[in-house]
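User: Here's a chain of 153 residues. Predict its fold as tokens.
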Amino acid sequence: MEAETATPPESTNNQLPPILSPSLPQHQDDTEQLPHQGPSYHAFNYFLEEMHGMLNDADLEKIVENQKNMHENLEQTAVTLTSLNDLSTQKYDELLRKYDLHAKCLKEMKNDLEYIFKKIRLIKTKVASQHPDAFAKMQKKIGIKQDGDDDED
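Assistant: Prediction complete.
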């Protein structure tokens, strides 16, 4: 038998017909292909070539310029929003500290007022028990309600 020196047939798995990708080289061997060069890579290049033929260069330049302008605007907006976020965080922390101080002050004032009203009730009870006639006259004169009628609490 004679030793044949024929080359293996071309692999058609990763190749497009020449009519679909006229400017792309056809690979003879799958081992020579780079990972990014498969059938989808050839189809993508074909798609780009077709799209490039549909648009003129002036339109493409306008699109690219608009994209650059939008990108710059978005970057400026992101910087502005970041600085606004930082400022609002600082103000929030400052106001939270003030709020906590005011809330603590109000709680202390409430406790103080409760203590004062408790002492006033004790004094009224003591005066009413020691001088009931004088206390009843004064209540009628200034229109003070009885202890059970209070609208406190």
